[in-house]
Specification:
29% of the residues lie in helices and 35% in strands. With 156 residues, it is α+β, with helices and mostly antiparallel strands. The protein folds into two domains: 1-35; 44-153, Lipocalin, CATH 2.40.128. Strands 4-3-2-1-9-8-7-6-5 form a nine-stranded antiparallel β-sheet, with no helix packed on it. The protein is rod-shaped and about 95 Å long. The chain crosses the membrane at residues 12-32. Keywords: Membrane, Transmembrane, Transmembrane helix.
Length: 156
C-alpha cells in the first residue's frame, strides 16, 4: 500500500513539475512575442498604415487635418487646412493670412520620408526628414499631439 501511495505521489509531483515548466515556457514565449510593446501596451504598429483625422482642435484654428503613417513608403503624410480668420474685406483676409504664416499656421500637404517611431513612456515620438511630433494615446482609436489637437483613426 505504501509503495502505491509513493508512486501516486511521485506521479503527481512529476506531472505538476511538467505543468509548471510548460506554464513558465509559455509565459516567457508571450513576453518575448510582446517585447516590442512598452509597459503601456504602445507599439509602433499602432500607427503604421493608419490614417488619423482631426477630431478636436482646442484653438479652433484648423478646418481639417489628416496624418497618415506609411510603413510601405516609410513616410508620414500631413495635411492641414486652417480656417480663414476673417471672411470680409480682401485686405483683412490677406492680413490674417500673413499673421497665420508668422505663427506657423500655414496650410500644408507634405510627405516626410524616413519615418521613425519610438515609444517613450506613454507617448509615440515621431520623426522623419523635416518632421518631428510627439503623440499621446488617448484611447485605442485616438491620439493627441503636443498642441492638444486630437486625431481619431479612420481606418483600422
Amino acid at each position: 500500500m505504501k509503495d502505491k501511495n509513493k508512486k501516486t505521489r511521485k506521479s503527481i509531483v512529476v506531472g505538476a513539475s511538467i505543468f509548471l515548466v510548460l506554464l513558465i515556457s509559455f509565459s516567457v514565449f508571450l513576453l518575448m512575442k510582446n517585447s516590442t510593446k512598452s509597459g503601456n501596451n504602445l507599439s509602433s504598429k499602432d500607427l503604421l498604415d493608419k490614417r488619423f483625422e482631426m477630431a478636436f482642435d482646442p484653438t479652433a484654428d484648423l478646418s481639417y487635418a489628416y496624418i497618415t503613417f506609411s510603413e510601405e513608403n516609410n513616410s508620414v503624410d500631413v495635411i492641414k487646412r486652417y480656417k480663414d480668420l476673417v471672411t470680409s474685406e480682401a485686405e483683412k483676409i490677406e492680413k490674417s493670412k500673413d499673421e497665420r504664416k508668422e505663427k506657423g499656421k500655414v496650410d500644408t500637404m507634405e510627405t516626410y520620408n524616413n519615418l521613425n517611431i519610438k515609444i517613450s513612456g506613454d507617448q509615440y515620438v515621431i520623426s522623419a526628414d523635416g518632421f518631428s511630433e510627439t503623440f499621446t494615446r488617448v484611447d485605442e482609436k485616438r491620439i493627441k499631439d503636443t498642441n492638444d489637437v486630437e486625431y481619431i483613426m479612420r481606418n483600422p
